[in-house]
Design a protein that fits this description.
Radius of gyration of chain B: 13 Å
Shape of chain B: globular
Radius of gyration of chain A: 14 Å
Strand order of the largest sheet of chain B: 1-3-2
Helix content of chain B: 40-55%
Helix content of chain A: 40-55%
Strand content of chain A: 15-25%
Number of helices of chain A: 6
Order of helices and strands of chain B: EHEHEH
Structural class of chain B: alpha+beta
Number of strands of chain B: 3
Largest sheet of chain B: 3 strands, antiparallel
Distance between the termini of chain A: 29 Å
Oligomer: heterodimer
């Protein structure tokens, strides 16, 4: 039960229930679709870049509490960031979710402020992709991917 | 075989919590996307019986579903 509470922290449940920055962004300069065929999670990330910084970001989609909360907290976290900062955040989040060494993961997540709430996801390897799908999709939007990204 | 959904909780979240309670189910679209589309569902939870299952196991499932409700209070 402790591990489950670490996974489903109050912040995650709250963002899963009432996601922030949810909806389309007609003025988006970048967008990408992400899909996890294993569980059916789908997410679209809309990004409006101005002078190389994130002026606005929104997402749409359907998925589990972890993926929706991840997208919600991610969109909050990347507002105002430059493209380079955003890619660095993605790298850190990836390390935080997938590093073999717990210390490396904890250190990476600790530099991501609120996103550290996802540290419990590491204990549930099958759920890691739920948390990382929005980030992969965000980076795909930056890269102006024309095809949907898949986790499989 | 019983496929079901819990209102307001994604089947993958249900599956993870049930697993924590020692109940194994399958969650997702069970390689049956067309029928999921037909019913307008993203995924379901699926429980099934084996010859080794007894009444206790059914009770364990029901209790564990209560745990899901505890964590995912509306």
């Amino acid at each position: 039960m402790t591990e489950l509470r670490d996974l489903y922290q109050e912040v995650i449940l709250d963002h899963g229930r009432r996601p922030r920055n949810f909806g389309a962004l007609p003025e988006a300069s970048h967008r990408a679709d992400g899909h996890n065929p294993f569980c059916g999670d789908k997410v679209t990330v809309f990004l409006a870049l101005e002078d190389g910084r994130v002026a606005d970001v929104r997402f749409q989609g359907a998925g589990c509490a972890i993926s929706i909360a991840s997208a919600s907290l991610m969109t909050d976290a990347v507002k105002g960031k430059s493209e380079a900062e955003l890619r660095a955040m993605f790298e850190r989040f990836q390390v935080g979710m997938t590093a073999k060494d717990d210390g490396d993961a904890a250190e990476a997540l600790s530099k991501l402020d609120k996103l550290a709430v996802f540290e419990g996801v590491r204990e549930f390897p099958i759920r890691v992709k739920c948390a990382t799908l929005p980030w992969h999709t965000l980076v795909a939007a930056l890269d102006r991917a024309s095809r949907p990204v898949k986790t499989e | 075989v019983i496929s079901f959904v819990l209102d307001g909780v994604h089947p993958h979240d249900v599956g993870t919590i049930l697993d924590g309670e020692g109940v194994c189910v399958r969650a997702g679209h069970h390689c049956a996307q067309p029928v999921m589309e037909r019913f307008g569902l993203a995924a379901t939870v699926r429980a099934s019986f084996g010859v080794y299952n007894g009444r206790d196991d059914v009770d364990a499932l029901v209790t564990a579903l209560g745990k899901v409700r505890e964590i995912f209070r509306p």
